[in-house]
Amino acid sequence: MAGPGLWAAIAAVLVVVIDTVVRRAHGWAREASLGAARRARLPPGDMGWPVVGAMWAFLRAFKSGNPDSFIGSFIRRFGRGGMYRAFMFNCPTILVATSDACKRVLMDDDSFGEGWPKATVELIGRKSFLTSSPEEHRRLRKLTAAPINGFDALSTYLGFIDRTVAEALHRSSEAGEIEFLTELRRVTFKVIVQIFLTEADDATMRELERSYTDLNYGIRAMAINLPGFAFHKAFKARKKLVSVLQGALNERRVATAKGILKSNMDMMDRLIEAEDEHGRRLDDEEIIDIMVMYLNAGHESSAHISMWATLFLLENPDIFAKAKAEQEEIIRNIPPTQKGISLRDFRKMEYLSQVIDETLRFVNISFVSFREAKKDVSLNGYLIPKGWKVQLWYRSVHMDPEVYPNPKKFNPSRWEGNTPTPGTFLAFGLGTRLCPGNDLGKLEISIFLHHFLLGYKLTRTNPNCRIRYLPHPRPVDNCLAKITKVSEEH
């Protein structure tokens, strides 16, 4: 009669055999149509189990607090080639983890189109920038770029950002213990709503903010629309957002029909009136999806980077002192007749810009982006088959010691006099799909850090709090802390 040890050994062997058979069968099913010659040119990797593929490993790595272990597992098994095949978000996928390969994919619009997961597309909107053709993408960028990132636009927004940040810091310093990240999200959301929906009242703002919080948790999830799953809650939040934005659109159109003119136009007004060279205007669905995308991107990244930059400054007193000295010098040179800082002063914040770039590299808010091969593409000796998804792992590029020596050290000085080689710094993407709000984002972050450096300190309640990496890296307590005013800023 076999003992317990033997049965355990037999069970273990059976598990390995079943796992191997299922993986090979799934791989064969996904790759058989390519034919032997094309299959032989695929990057190393495997498709894993049906439906889940590498998603369990991906979620496990990011929820364990060691997100780099996901790509690390491919490196251990298949070497440092930088390209691997996998099954992600229910699609055959090529993972790209080197700067040169990322650059080639991002710069080649003829071979690669957008390939975002179904959940992202459904939540942000099918008529946003995410799924548009290169021609449509250029059209949408042309209609929206100047009101977001143009010199005149930034000059207009700066005063409101400056006042909003100063008021928020003062209020937070009198509030006792706060969730620092939550407060920052409110500030950046107030700014972006002011730009897009000037007339939004406090109730509308709170409703939009709550909905965006729920929506954001579903963007990187699998598109399972069942109670209990992140996507289900996020999809309900999108419906609320669409309802609020459609209501605002209807009010604007009624006012226009009645000849009621506004004294100052916001982004919704500009989108309503936008007309391309062929006289074509945006329909309501296009306007709403563009606004959902901008409102989400326009506050989440800025708030998170502002928080992390603050924490890194506090953890590195020498960096804090250098950044503060720069801001003090800027204040000393402001003319007595000038109220607040100007865009010219913002352009002088060279070291603070390096702090922000290093935070963007180090934290990796946008850790991956998605493309799809429009045709068979040869890249670094491997085949990317037509129709396959491509994931560009920005996080791996930013933490590559061959690109950034000692990558786990926060070192803003690495950016001094250093213009990154294309493909090595991907915080805002690259090529025609470069983030359209990057200048506005850096302006918001800079203004916040300017005020914080000159007049405040932050004491965390749980300085060793665990980090959650999805959808964005953040302390699980949202950076519970107390802000203290240490001096009058200027």
TrEMBL record:
<protein>
    <submittedName>
        <fullName>Uncharacterized protein</fullName>
    </submittedName>
</protein>
<keyword id="KW-1133">Transmembrane helix</keyword>
<dbReference type="InterPro" id="IPR017972">
    <property type="entry name" value="Cyt_P450_CS"/>
</dbReference>
<keyword id="KW-0732">Signal</keyword>
<dbReference type="InterPro" id="IPR001128">
    <property type="entry name" value="Cyt_P450"/>
</dbReference>
<dbReference type="GO" id="GO:0016125">
    <property type="term" value="P:sterol metabolic process"/>
</dbReference>
<feature type="binding site" description="axial binding residue">
    <location>
        <position position="435"/>
    </location>
    <ligand>
        <name>heme</name>
    </ligand>
</feature>
<dbReference type="GO" id="GO:0005783">
    <property type="term" value="C:endoplasmic reticulum"/>
</dbReference>
<keyword id="KW-0503">Monooxygenase</keyword>
<dbReference type="GO" id="GO:0010268">
    <property type="term" value="P:brassinosteroid homeostasis"/>
</dbReference>
<dbReference type="GO" id="GO:0016132">
    <property type="term" value="P:brassinosteroid biosynthetic process"/>
</dbReference>
<keyword id="KW-0812">Transmembrane</keyword>
<keyword id="KW-0479">Metal-binding</keyword>
<keyword id="KW-0349">Heme</keyword>
<dbReference type="GO" id="GO:0009686">
    <property type="term" value="P:gibberellin biosynthetic process"/>
</dbReference>
<dbReference type="GO" id="GO:0005506">
    <property type="term" value="F:iron ion binding"/>
</dbReference>
<keyword id="KW-0560">Oxidoreductase</keyword>
<dbReference type="InterPro" id="IPR002401">
    <property type="entry name" value="Cyt_P450_E_grp-I"/>
</dbReference>
<dbReference type="GO" id="GO:0016020">
    <property type="term" value="C:membrane"/>
</dbReference>
<dbReference type="GO" id="GO:0051777">
    <property type="term" value="F:ent-kaurenoic acid monooxygenase activity"/>
</dbReference>
<dbReference type="Pfam" id="PF00067">
    <property type="entry name" value="p450"/>
</dbReference>
<keyword id="KW-0408">Iron</keyword>
<dbReference type="InterPro" id="IPR036396">
    <property type="entry name" value="Cyt_P450_sf"/>
</dbReference>
<feature type="signal peptide">
    <location>
        <begin position="1"/>
        <end position="27"/>
    </location>
</feature>
<comment type="similarity">
    <text>Belongs to the cytochrome P450 family.</text>
</comment>
<comment type="pathway">
    <text>Plant hormone biosynthesis; gibberellin biosynthesis.</text>
</comment>
<dbReference type="GO" id="GO:0020037">
    <property type="term" value="F:heme binding"/>
</dbReference>
<comment type="pathway">
    <text>Hormone biosynthesis.</text>
</comment>
<keyword id="KW-0472">Membrane</keyword>
